[in-house]
Amino acid sequence: MNVFEIPLQLINLQGDGFHLLVEVVVYGQAFNLVLDTGASKSALDKDTITALIDDDSQIYHLPDRHAIGVGTSSMERYAVIVPEFKIGDLIVENYAVPVFDLTTVKFAYETMQLPAVIGVLGGDILKGYHAVIDYQSNILRLFN
């Protein structure tokens, strides 16, 4: 079994708690995601992904499914298959990931002058790769 150790960045939310950020690489570019143990799935910002792909027809609509937990249960759901989704040295190939309009999340981070984020790393990856979060060392361990 391979162990992948991924550094986490601890972000102080101006004295109102904290978030852990993890760097991922999608479409050859590095981005931050919020590590979200309460999210059932990872998700990326639709506008960011649309700007990275050659053909926005690669983003497909899931008409019978809606987002739950992003402030509403009526948000339309879309997905894209990312050829290589890298988390540290772990590469998830042909990863089908939901994409949503996360403008408000991106704006909140910008307003608080925090590092930019384009989504969340959620339970599909965390459970699927037997995640262990080491809060003392700010390390995410994934196993494959």
From TrEMBL:
It comes from Pseudopedobacter beijingensis. Transmembrane segments: none annotated. This is Aspartyl protease family protein. Keywords: Hydrolase, Protease. The keyword Protease applies. GO terms for molecular function: peptidase activity. Signal peptide: none annotated. Pfam families: Asp_protease_2. The keyword Hydrolase applies. GO terms for biological process: proteolysis. It comes from the Bacteria.
